[in-house]
Write a structure and sequence with these properties.
It is found in: Cytoplasm. This protein has about 525 residues and is of the alpha/beta class. It has helices at about 15-25, 40-45, 60-70, 75-85, 85-95, 135-145, 215-220, 250-255, 280-295, 310-315, 315-325, 380-395, 420-440, 445-465, 470-495; strands spanning about 5-10, 30-35, 50, 115, 125, 150-155, 160-165, 170-175, 180-190, 225, 230-240, 260, 300, 335-345, 345-350, 360, 365-370, 515-520. β8 (about 170-175) and β9 (about 180-190) form a beta hairpin.
């Protein structure tokens, strides 16, 4: 076992983690845990862009208002305004860092870079790099991280838990490598940038989604988890049950794409005045309802009317990918279906990313800052990553470090057991199926009760399976089952429909609705 020590330990290498590393490394030593699967995570696959007030025709109050509407009454207005006000300087930092945003060469351009519009926004404020913004941002920041002498990357480690002293402060993390060897990584400040919990569901919009690992590890130390019931399902994921996940950006609808049912008819205009540009929860439920009414397991997204030149100009990545899957956007509509996309809930933090655990911060999708409320507005996610990573860096400069003299322990795990791990994989598949069937776009009290019972059975089966021998895969599944059970509990406690949580038993808003808050103490007893 090795025990490297650094000033800052950052777990996760998406936009939030990379931004924080670069924002703090000039004055602090940084250990960045960035597993290979981070290249298949949410940040790199973010297509649409980053929302910010950049055009002289736009203003902060308008962006704040749009975000509050999308959040359906549960946003923290202070967090919303903080994020929006700090957006332009974060974008300027990216531009100065060399991110190749798409320029606007039109004669009457009001801003040097092209700004598009997405669902929920009443202005064009989405800056983008063609239709592969996440990839452009990650690649640019990663090059700078690799060149920085104060940043040490660890690619072969999988973090399994956090280290804690006798006073409750976080001292770092423990991880296991590919040779099943343990490593303790101590740090003065530990930052979780581990992504959301979309991997708890069967269908997702990224090839290698996070499953809320950072959330449950923080809860195990005593952090509060907030708004777990608000899981966003992106309305338009490429439908191919046998192929890899691929997101069809909201910008496709922003530029005029139409959703069609099996009869080839638009159905959104009759449901919402904003039609295809209604907030994601509205569009996802409409698609789900349309699928239930027809024989096809998907609907269509049609951009043929935009013309081949516009399609190639705005969506070269999407066009190329669809061609590789046998769909020509200029001649055919795209089969699409809603899929788990973004966790609006997570580890409760303040405006600096600080959690309730001393020494522990959380940024990006794993955090719940209050920005998104009951539903995230399009392209506010990367904005949040940038703003809170930079805010976290500023806070760490002034926060007193935690003690480094406490003893700590970690589980003693044997080598992997192939027989046990095969059974664990089957249980994990059962978990994802349960969540997709009963805790997805449309919920009911009966369905949530069934989910609770199924997850309890999975937990019992796992406990019996590992009574004699625990493996790394089993320990990870144990964490995910716990997070899934907390998610179900949060949904059961919300006796209303709001934002991303829609219940057939409670179809209306409740008065005085509040964010939900849960901790490890809310887990059912074994």
């Amino acid at each position: 076992m090795t025990t490297p020590t650094s000033d800052i330990l950052i777990i996760g290498g998406g936009v939030a983690g990379l931004t924080l590393a670069l924002s703090i490394a000039d004055t602090h030593s940084v250990a960045l845990i960035r597993p290979a699967q981070d290249d298949q995570g949410a940040s790199r696959w973010a297509q649409g862009g980053i929302a910010a007030v950049l055009s002289p025709d736009d203003h902060v109050d308008a962006h704040v208002s749009d975000t509050l509407v999308a959040g359906d009454g549960l946003c923290d207005e202070r967090a919303v305004r903080f994020t929006v006000e700090h957006g332009p300087e974060a974008i300027n930092w990216l531009i100065d860092s060399g991110v190749p945003f798409t320029p606007d060469h039109t004669d009457n351009a009001r801003y040097p870079f092209h700004l598009t519009r997405e669902g929920g926004h009443n202005a064009r404020r989405i800056i983008h790099a063609d239709d592969a913004t996440g990839r452009a941002v990650v690649d640019t920041l990663l090059q700078r991280v690799m060149a920085h002498p104060n940043i040490t990357q660890h690619h072969q480690l999988s973090v399994m838990g956090l280290l804690q002293d006798t006073q409750g402060a976080c001292l770092g993390a423990y991880a296991i490598d590919e040779q099943q060897q343990w490593h303790a990584l101590t740090a003065r400040h530990t930052v979780l940038a581990t992504g959301g919990a979309s991997g708890l569901y069967q269908h997702t919009t990224t090839p290698s989604p996070s499953s809320g690992e950072g959330m449950i590890m923080a809860a195990e130390l005593g952090a509060t988890l907030m708004n777990l019931e608000f899981q966003q399902f992106h309305p338009t994921c490429f439908y191919d049950p046998d192929g890899p996940a691929f997101l069809i950006s909201e910008a496709v609808r922003g530029e005029g794409g139409h959703l069609l049912n099996a009869a080839g008819e638009r159905f959104m205009p009759a449901l919402d005045a904003r039609a295809e540009l209604a907030p994601r929860d509205v569009v996802a439920r409409a698609i789900d309802a349309e699928i239930q009414r027809q024989t096809l397991p998907h609907v269509w997204l049609d951009v043929r009317h935009l013309g081949a030149d516009a399609i190639h100009h705005h969506f070269p990545t999407i066009q190329a990918h669809c061609l590789s899957r046998g769909i020509d956007l200029t001649q055919q509509p795209i089969p699409v279906v809603p899929a788990a996309h973004y966790s609006c809930g997570g580890i409760a933090t303040d405006l600096t990313g600080a959690t309730g655990v001393p020494g522990l911060f959380a940024i990006g999708e794993t955090a719940c800052t209050g920005l998104h409320g009951a539903n995230r507005m399009a392209s506010n996610s990367l904005l949040e990553c940038l703003v809170f990573a930079r805010s976290c860096a500023q806070a760490i400069q002034t926060v007193a470090p935690t003690s480094q003299h406490e003893e700590f322990t970690w589980p003693a795990l044997p080598a992997a057991n192939g027989v046990i791990d095969q059974q664990v994989m089957a249980l994990r598949k059962q978990l994802r199926t349960t969540m997709s069937q009963h805790v997805a776009i449309v919920r009911s009290s009966a369905g949530l009760k069934t989910a609770s019972q199924s997850l309890a059975q999975i937990a019992a089966t796992l406990a019996a399976l590992t009574e004699q021998q625990m493996t790394v895969q089993a320990l990870r599944l144990q964490q995910l089952v716990n997070l899934a059970r907390l998610t179900v509990k949060a949904a059961q406690q919300r006796h209303e429909s709001r934002g991303l949580h829609y219940s057939t038993d409670w179809p209306d808003h409740a008065q005085n609705s509040q964010p939900s808050r849960l901790t490890r103490h809310d887990l059912p007893k074994p």
